Amino acid sequence: MRVEQLTCAIGAELHDVNLGDAVRDDGLFNDIYAALLKFKVLFLRDQDFEKLSRKDHMAFAMRMGQLETHPMVPSHPEAPGLVQIYKTPEKPADRYENSWHCDTTFREAPPMGAVLRCIECPPVGGDTMWANMVLAYEKLPEYVKQEIEGLIASHSFNASFAAAMPQEKRLAMKTQYPDAEHPVVRTHPETGEKVLFVNAFATHFVNYHSEGRVRFGQDYNKGGSDLMQYLISQAYNPEYQVRWRWRPYSVAIWDNRCTQHYAVMDYPPCHRKMERAAIVGDKPFR
Ligand code: SIN
């Protein structure tokens, strides 16, 4: 396997690999997993159904843990757990996807990662971008690091994609997925790296109030909201990013604990079909 680093910040492309082989080959799987921890997102080209059947797509992901069923997006009928992110010209509302996010951080235990394959895409447009949130934390000014030490954020599906859903559906979902609280700076459970862990699902800090920070309620809005927006906007820095241009049967594998991603919605109404196996993670800790 040849590993080609794609940017100084994040991402590598793997060459001369059939991902299906990594389902059965421990050595190959371990090499890929080590590369994932190092580069945070990996890319492969030409992983068609011969090289990687849908069953193998799921089996590869399941080497890293259990598959997550998505609360809003349906799975492939013959492959439960393989979520179909299909955009069609007929359903433009479903195209609402463009927001920097970590997958489902409104859950107590968000996914540790995901394996996404492109089945069909526009000839140009519809790229996906990833940002390295370890680097985003590392580069924060020292006084900001001190200010956010120990802060906890509330995450809600209402804050992002679900905002387009009818109110009854959102209220019904809320009982199943109440808001989750996560540390603003989490420790990666395997690498020990510190990660800036707020994204489009984060609504507010739950423990911002302290004598030094809040004199009146208005200070909370000014201080807390501005700080939250500043932290969320760190993922927008090109210095922390990689941008991937899809072709049919390209694959991306990412570590959802330390990255964010953004599916760029710059293409005209057309088919863009992606299939994603997300892997259940553990509860983030400081
Ligand atoms: C996702 O947000 O997990 C999907 C990204 C994409 O469709 O490119």
Automatic annotation (TrEMBL):
PANTHER family: ALPHA-KETOGLUTARATE-DEPENDENT SULFONATE DIOXYGENASE
Organism: Pseudomonas izuensis
Pfam families on file: TauD
Membrane-spanning intervals of the chain: none
Family: Belongs to the TfdA dioxygenase family.
Domain TauD/TfdA-like: 3-277
Keywords attached to this entry: Dioxygenase, Iron, Metal-binding, Oxidoreductase
GO MF terms held by the record: dioxygenase activity
Domain of life: Bacteria
Protein name per its UniProtKB record: TauD/TfdA family dioxygenase
